[in-house]
Amino acid sequence: MSRIPPDLVKELRRRTGASVVECRRALEASGGDLHKAASLLKLQALTTASRQPRIAGSNGVVAVHALEDGSAGGLVELSFETRRAVRGERFRQFVLALARQVARSPVNSLEELLEAPLPERGPRVLDALGDLILRSGEAFGIRRFLRMEARVPGVVAAYSHGPGAVGRLGTLVEVSGSQAPAARRLARELTLQVSFHRPPYLCRQDVPEPRLAFEREAILRRFEREAGRGSSPDALADEIMRNSFFRAAVLLDQPWVREVSRTVADLVEECSAEAGVPLRVRRYVLFEVGAPLEEVVAPDHEPG
Fold first, then answer.
1. pLDDT at residue 231 above 60?
2. How far is Cα 26 from Cα 12, in angstroms, rounded to an integer?
3. Cis peptide bond upstream of 153, omega within 30
4. Assuming Cys at both sites, which of 76, 272, 281, 285 could form a disulfide with 145, CB separation 3.0 to 4.6 Å?
5. What is the pLDDT of residue 304?
């Protein structure tokens, strides 16, 4: 076909959202057949989606969703080349639906997630992603995802540092021991705590011995340089560890964000009394856009 009519290019663009150049090329390759050209564009977009390039850089979003009954939650990070992708409502709805899908259905790999249908009888994740790529002309993909399921009895809560559960940071927290309102309250409060203070350890027992030895040695060296304080260096080192390192690095030792005169451990004790049973912070995870893929905080145990 020597020349593609402009109205045919316009109609294909209306149907697919692809660029004028892409539509013209697809029509030329299909001999002017509108249906074949649309299928070709869709195939190209799906091929791009299936490759899932893990785009480097700081452009991306994190979406988070916890099921209404608190039984599970999902986190997903999408990365892309330019921030124009997040301006459309279609993209936003896709990311939210993807987080809901992750929360609802256990999947073990990216391949399984791409084959799963979106909630409310939606298309496959792969099809929806391919359609977005086609319409936006943007190269983006699913960088990572995680599902957290509550141990019964227990609850999972979610927090997003952004409007409408989509932003640059998302957190899930699991509290075990009860599904009472007090347990839900504790889990919600701790999502905020983890998001703002990002503790690398849940309790003191989680801190590796080499890290403890390093921190204590650093304190003792400081005493060597500043001799003559009149107190035992060992005793003061232990006190500084309690009042400095543990309060910064250990979740249960941290000051509670809403009332800094109390610790997170105090909050856990208060909510346990309200629930009538001991509550435990079982695990937590934080996704931040562009952070290393291995940066996941999730000690999978129940501290005593």
1. no
2. 9
3. yes
4. 76
5. 47
Tell me what pLDDT residue 227 has. 57
Phi, then psi, of 206 in degrees rounded to 5: -80, -20
C-alpha closest to that of 280 among 171, 193, 151:
151
Strands of 166-167's sheet in order across:
140-149, 72-80, 60-66, 166-167
Tell me how far apart the alpha carbons of residues 283 and 303 are, in angstroms, rounded to a whole number: 10
Residues 287 and 195 sit within 8 Å (Cβ to Cβ): no
Task: Cite the beta strand spans of the chain per DSSP E.
Answer: 60-66, 72-80, 140-149, 154-160, 166-167, 169-176, 255-256, 259-263, 280-288
Enter the pTM of the model: 0.80
Taking CA atoms, 241 is separated from 96, 262, 267, in Å, by 42, 18, 22
pLDDT for position 53: 46
- Residue 75 pLDDT more than 90? yes
Amino acid at 196: F
Band the pLDDT of 56: cuts 50, 70, 90.
low
Q: In angstroms, how far is CA 273 from the centroid of its own chain?
A: 31
Query: Who wins on pLDDT, 12 or 266?
Result: 266
- Side-by-side strand order, sheet with 169-176: 154-160, 169-176, 280-288
Q: Which helix (H) or strand (E) holds 219?
A: helix 209-225
- Measuring CA to CA, which residue among 55, 97, 111, 50 is closest to residue 79? 55
